[in-house]
Amino acid sequence: MKGLHVVRLAGGRLSIRIRTRTVWVVGALTVFTLALAVLAVTLGEFPIAPGDVFAVFTGHGSASIQRIVLEWRAPRIVLAILAGAALALSGAIFQSLTRNPLGSPDILGFSHGAYTGALIVMFVIGGNYVATSIGAFVGGVATAAVVYFLSFRNGVQGFRLIVIGIAVSAFLVALNGWFIISVDVNSAISAATWATGSFDLSTWNDVLPVLGTIVVLVPVLAMYSQRLHTLELGDDAAIGLGVRAEPTRLVLLLVGVALVAVVTAAAGPISFVALAAPQIARRLTRSPGTALLPSALLGAALMLGSDVIAQRVIAPTQLPVGIITVIIGGIYLIALLAAQSRKA
């Protein structure tokens, strides 16, 4: 097939198919994300020249510049990259499972469920960052279980899952709003600000749980990636090819929810990255199925780029990154719906 190369390993017993266009897209996205990271670390109320940034990472920078780069800006940049990649992978999972470009954790309600779990810990139970992370994960899993149960009828169909997810999402938005207006003003303002999604005041303590979750779950996703692609053919075809549809779907669903939950706990519910990144990556690579690595890289670039815009668009005032992703995602969603209407 044109543009498709097969690399054989272990004496020909193992082969890997590599698409030339995908390699170019991955390389371009990697370079673009690194360039954005360099730009992000140089911008701010105290601009830093690229040469001074390089000096910091070679151990020759001044103490003040080292503090700005390593303690203030680097955690924010790394968290934005990891959060974007995690959300994009989660979106790729759910869009593949539902076989629908609207099948993302934003639309299905899983992000709102994770936010609900975090609010319950913050306002009702009380706890630190770890407890909030656990609450977000439990809330996301509980929401996924409810949506999955209500959608199950001789298996789970993508369209039914999306419709029920939208309904559950609307309920959770109302519930979260009730939580916020039921607490004192200071807590409500803090929760409402966090709800927009922000990397302000991010530290390495915020980065580590997201990094750890990705390190654990990405190998699991890699193991199930071929089965994920097979499920895109439909349950009957997948079963015929030896894939256990429901157990596989359940594992992938838990992986996707965990990725959303840990980002929600770290930075709040950030919308539309999970919706837009996988589909844009798929169009860039012209892949017939879900492109996981390009999706992750595009999500990282989209999130970091949005955060740079959020910091500088009305500087010195900084906007929450979630506002920028909503604007970008809204434009993408309008374009997607317009494209779908032309096909109808």
TrEMBL record:
The keyword Transport applies. PANTHER family: FERRIC ENTEROBACTIN TRANSPORT SYSTEM PERMEASE PROTEIN, FERRIC ENTEROBACTIN TRANSPORT SYSTEM PERMEASE PROTEIN FEPG. GO terms for molecular function: transmembrane transporter activity. It comes from the Bacteria. It is found in: Cell membrane. It holds the Pfam family FecCD. Gene3D superfamilies: ABC transporter involved in vitamin B12 uptake, BtuC. Keywords: Cell membrane, Membrane, Transmembrane, Transmembrane helix, Transport. The chain crosses the membrane at residues 21-41, 77-97, 117-150, 162-181, 207-224, 250-277, 289-309, 321-339. The keyword Oxidoreductase does not apply. This is Iron ABC transporter permease. GO terms for biological process: siderophore-iron import into cell.
